[in-house]
């Protein structure tokens, strides 16, 4: 996992620089900069809207006695999507919007659920409850 992360830290910025240079040569530097700023502003607004929706849904589910598991995955996707949109570049912006739009986010949520299920089954992910109110003396 660490090797994949290290590879992403090297490859993604190199690809972003290449796409930015290509964009600057194709549509011009001022328009490229304007597009980067525009995607950042639109992404921040979308992240705020989707984040507030996730919080409201989680509150509603918990008030009805339900565990908001799917909403927590939504929150993780929204957080990651918002952070990725803050980085300048078109590839990371595309990934960020992919995580923020509910229809496309469901694809990534399904992937995350499979990863978590596999980690729990293999014993790499262990949940320990430290809820002292439900303990019997």
TrEMBL record:
Q: Which residues cross the membrane?
A: 27-47, 67-88
InterPro entries, A to Z: FxsA (IPR007313)
Q: Which UniProt keywords apply?
A: Membrane, Transmembrane, Transmembrane helix
- One Pfam family this sequence matches: FxsA
What cellular component terms from Gene Ontology apply here? membrane
User: Which NCBIfam families does the entry link to?
Assistant: PRK11463.1-2 (NF008528)
**Which PANTHER family does the record cross-reference, listed alphabetically?**
UPF0716 PROTEIN FXSA
What this protein is called in its record is Membrane protein FxsA
User: What is the scientific name of the source organism?
Assistant: Salipaludibacillus keqinensis
């Amino acid at each position: 996992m660490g090797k994949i992360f290290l590879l992403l830290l090297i490859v993604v910025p190199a690809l972003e620089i290449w796409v930015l240079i290509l964009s600057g040569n194709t549509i011009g530097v001022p328009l490229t900069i304007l597009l980067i700023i525009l995607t950042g502003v639109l992404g921040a607004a979308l992240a705020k809207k989707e984040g507030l929706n996730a919080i409201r849904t989680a509150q509603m589910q918990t008030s009805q006695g339900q565990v908001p598991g799917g909403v927590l995955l939504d929150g993780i996707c929204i957080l990651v999507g918002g952070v990725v949109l803050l980085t300048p570049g078109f590839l990371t912006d595309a990934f960020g919007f992919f995580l923020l739009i509910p229809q496309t986010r469901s694809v990534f949520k399904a992937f995350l659920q499979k990863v978590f299920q596999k980690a729990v089954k293999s014993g790499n992910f262990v949940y320990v409850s430290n809820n002292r109110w439900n303990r019997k003396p």
